[in-house]
Fold this protein.
Amino acid sequence: MSKSNFTRRGLLKTSVAAGGALAMPTIFSPSWADGHAGFTNAPQGSTVTLGFNVPQSGPYADEGADELRAYELAVEHLNGGGDGGMINTFSSKTLDGTGILGKKVEYVTGDTQTKSDAARASARSMIEKDGAVMITGGSSSGVAVAVQALCQEAGIIFMAGLTHSNDTTGKDRKANGFRHFFNSYMSGAALAPVLANAYGKDRKAYHLTADYNWGYTTEEAVTQATEAVGWETVNTVKTPLTQTDFSSYIAPVLQTDADVLVLNHYGGNMVNSLTNAVQFGLRDKQVNGKNFEIVVPLYSRLMARGAGANVKGIFGSTNWHWSLTDEGSKAFVQSFGTKYGFPPSQAAHTCYVQTMLYADAVNRAGSFNPCAVVEALEGFEFDGLGNGPTLYRAEDHQCFKDVLVVKGKENPTSEFDLLEIVEITPRAQVEYAPDHPQMGGAAATLGSCNPGA
Amino acid sequence: MFGLNSKDSTLLILVAVLALFAPFILNPFPEGSALAQFNAGYPDLMQRFVIFGIFAIGFNILFGLTGYLSFGHAAFLGVGSYAAIWMMKLLTLNVIPAIIMAIIFAGIFALVVGFISLRRSGIYFSILTLAFAQMSYALAYSVLTPITGGETGLQLKATDTPLLSNLGPTEIGRANLFGLDMRTSYELELGTWLFTFNTGYYIAAVCMLIGFYVSIRIFRSPFGMMLRAVKSNQQRLNYTGLNSKPYTLAAFVISGMYAGLAGGLMVAMDTQVGPERMFWTASGEVVLMTILGGVGTLIGPVLGAGMIKYMENIISKINDNILHQWFAFMPDGIEDFLVTIIHPFIGKGWHLTLGIIFMLVVIFLPGGLVEGGQRIGRMFGSGKKADADTGAADTKPAE
């Protein structure tokens, strides 16, 4: 026992040394503000650090990997490397390849694991340890809402990645958070007229909905939009998120007089439910003298690839597609393809654009101060980033732009060429009031911007 | 000291000193140096170290002493978190009532789950607890959305007006302890070193020390002895005429309350909760922490928790870019080669690194990191034992 004294004494020595260190004249200042100019993590020296928080493991790892590629490309372009990509087509001309406000862009990466806890831990380490001045990324609305709230508290700008639920810029909107991606409401509003045209106005729809937040907002948006064009909703059924076999949910559809099946599913859920529905022969059926049809409100290329030939002819909506032929999209597909050898996904596109928009907003504001950036982005009208003329609305920090209605291609030429654009729904048709009931009503407010520190 | 023998007192003091000086110990590298990547002394991670330490200490009271392997402990963490955030939303932003409610609710839930699950032992018990946890997760994710916020979870909002706090109309509440904000910290610059002392961390550390002390007392008590008897041979214990169920149930509830404390502290440090906190991987994680550190030892679970959280937060943030900076001094070919070799083990590959370490520990150090410490201790002088292994002598099963 006596020998354990050694350790204790050693520790005492350490503590005395540490106490002495404490007594030295030192600079005390609150965290997140150390020696900075009035806001959290103000960039010091000749560099600025951005935090790229994407799912690198878990169910959305593929999308996360594509997002990271886009971020790396964006940083390269901001620092003057590569061919400049969409900097050349962007309507605002403040970006010149010298970084942001003349500071070279550096970045840190983290793994959200598509869990809000892990995402917040990773974001907090970027803020507290790495001094990131902006966080961006994410591939699920749960994560986006969680990280957005964290950034609001810490006084950091959050540029959302792939998040489609209404809540991100609806009931959970925050002054420091911005979303370029479209949302459930826009999907519904864009799809309904196209569906009415293609399938008629007297259809009876049956909804299968993933039993979580995004599923609810999408179901609500699509039922309201389709009922507005005259459709009838026969039934809406919630399916567990972890379900892999949907046969037991699809069999009851056959017992009703529904003639359209809407699958409010995303990712692996959609791949499985669509495959099951096709196996049940729903698409060869005739109900009420009409062909039975299937609709998938939110499409992504990765999902289309997973479902294979089953997606042929099925309608859905998407934020952006690489086959668009405007100058911005062409420039982006060109530089992404040159660097990685395949076309970018819509997740990559929205992340790249968000980074550019942030960099430009800082340049226009002349400061990294979050409140200045918020002011620069609010009500900002821009073009040349692949979606046509776009507005960052001041009331909810949501981008308003044209929405693509797509359908599964009948004769795909490659594993990336699975969707074809049916219609580009104009922006006016998908706009809504900031206090729309689906967006949290009048109770939803941005609050005020928080510069932290 | 406090009714502990000298050995245990030493251990408690050691843990207290480690916790007190964690900001120094975890930040050994100067800011801006290449190795600063490995610094872990920032508030979020330090808080996680102690919070998951508490979680693992509590789990160890059940698993280490009785041998009952619960695969659903994250459910109590989650219940504690939801209770705490509702206290903050409705009553007060002070963390103390929130933490107390978290412990109470987790305890009640553990009583219900334990009462049912403890009818079986071994693998059946594990499966029952797993089923309860997954059920809680599924409920929180979807059916109970009005209470739990579903996928997006709950956070403090500008619309929340806790009874005992007077907030401005658009002000978002912040967790505090009698007005002391959890997130305030002081930064100490010594040359190029930067040390951060965070309020929330020290509050969590005090909770962990109390939890650690209680756990030592339980380990050394007649009650703890009875739990060890359950582990070594429950049937024999029953044949002596003793009813072991109240003991196991008590252990289960205590360990659930520890999880609730951890959950409440998580909310106190970062006012947000989502259902993934109850997912089965979270339950599995605490099992890994305990086994990695050393089952049935006092300090093992804390070490295991620290190890796993360190890997999750530090290794996962290293990317190819950083590797290229490290190896920049080498010729291009060798640099690229080294980066290619290391690439699978960093960033998203942190699971792989953790898995390898876990396998190595289980194969070569069945007693966990504590056994490693013991062996090193034995290497340096025969009579000398490392402080860390004090509890390890008690781990040997009686079979």
Summary: The two ends of chain B are 33 Å apart (CA to CA). Confidence is low (pLDDT under 50) at residues 384-399 of chain B. Residues 32 and 117 of chain B are 52 Å apart (CA to CA).
